[in-house]
Amino acid sequence: xxxxxxxxxxxxxxxxxxxxxxxxxxxxxxxxxxxxxxxxxxxxxxxxxxxxxxxxxxxxxxxxxxxxxxxxxxxxxxxxxxxxxxxxxxxxxxxxxxxxxxxxxxxxxxxxxxxxxxxxxxxxxxxxxxxxxxxxxxxxxxxxxxxxxxxxxxxxxxxxxxxxxxxxxxxxxxxxxxxxxxxxxxxxxxxxxxxxxxxxxxxxxxxxxxxxxxxxxxxxxxxxxxxxxxxxxxx
Amino acid sequence: xxxxxxxxxxxxxxxxxxxxxxxxxxxxxxxxxxxxxxxxxxxxxxxxxxxxxxxxxxxxxxxxxxxxxxxxxxxxxxx
Lengths: 235, 79
Prior knowledge:
The structure holds two protein chains of two kinds.
Chain A: E1 2-7, H1 14-23, E2 27-32, E3 43-46, H2 66-76, E4 80-84, H3 86-93, E5 100-102, E6 110-118, E7 134-141, E8 145-147, H4 150-158, E9 162-167, E10 186-190, E11 196-199, H5 216-225
Parallel strand pairs in A: 1-2, 1-3, 3-4, 4-11
Antiparallel strand pairs in A: 5-8, 6-7, 6-9, 9-10, 10-11
Chain B: E1 2-9, H1 16-27, E2 40-45, H2 51-65, E3 71-78
Antiparallel strand pairs in B: 1-2, 1-3
């Protein structure tokens, strides 16, 4: 299983993604944003960071990098694409995912653990989870408030495209458990075809006990189990 | 030709910056200040003119300079 981790000027979670996927048994390669081909990769990860300094809007300029044309092609071919944090913002800007991410309700940059409720296991990104399962995974963002208009929200909910929501430790959806004001507590959505997924929390930062938790492995292992020859390490 | 592009958050989008500015206006003694929205203005020297440029400019406004999911734009052209 070959995974690409994209690198834009300002990406800063690329090494974390590489390390986590490598540990789980993937054959991981960095791909610079000027590359025009992603042939041969089964999984493409758009990592977190501050691509192009977040100028104009988060992800707005990265969206026009040469590699993004290859990402759109790969997505249209049904290959798996995962966007984490700034990667989620880039995928929304590229219109591969519905909605957009705007400034946190509090105006503060938030760096903390959050609880996420897995809404469905019927995707390649959540198949190692059970619906309703609560994961503890960190966030680190200033613009993570998910916004889409009512019609879009109704549509993505009807299509079961909301994969994770911010919740209390017991799994209940409360305003207090919604760290950034995201509409309907949405933390991550997939496309209609279910092969492109973006989320604001960082599963790659929750794969080692020494880092405070391993719940991120549920999401990354889901991915690797969805692909040929996963070679998953016992973990 | 020069373009002035004004980008504003849509009315339906939460604008916490606008709320913070409104609160500061109240502290300054402007207690009657109502809604405040914070957007941005871009001044763009186009170096050329013509209807083709104008069409491309609208495309750039929709694809790059604003995100239609959360923002509206207004384009003004100066000779």
